[in-house]
Structure formats: C-alpha cells, structure tokens
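Extended Data, panel c. Modelled sequence:
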Amino acid sequence: MKLDDKVCYCFHVSKRKIVNFIRRERPKRASQVSECFGAGTGCGWCIPFLTQLHQEIVGDDAVESDDISAADYEAMRKQYHQDLASGDRDRHRY
C-alpha cells in the first residue's frame, strides 16, 4: 500500500495522513489515532491496520510500504462488509 492510498474509506483518510499524525502527535494508544480525521470510527475495517501503523511508528520501524496492494485492501474491505451483512462475521473481527 502506498502512502497516498486510503486506509480509512469511511472518512477518506490516507496512509500518509495517518503516518504523519502518529509521527507528529505520538499517541500513547492506537485508539487515539481516531483523532486523525476520525480514522477507525466508522465501519471498523481499518482498526487492525491503524493499530499496526501505530505499533510500527511508535517502535520506530519503517512504514513506507507493506505487502498489500490498495486493490487487495479494498477487496478485503468489501468482503468484510458482505460478511457483516450476511451475518457470517461479527463487527471488528477480522
């Protein structure tokens, strides 16, 4: 996933915005990343990704690229919502 790809589709928050927010604000808890334009407070799909970014940045790891493409991320999110609608998955379970 590239820096300008969306992580939070509900509020259109890019990876770049989240990374810069975490680097600048240094939130103590991953849940505080929600202060970045509401990321993670909509459908909940991006919470594991926000948590991972928080852990990487707070731990001073590199976050410029990861193994998932933006298209794969979007497809996984779509499946998450379909599973929620059909009752095959609980909210916030990945």
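The longest strand covers residues 6-8. This feature is highlighted in the accompanying rendering.
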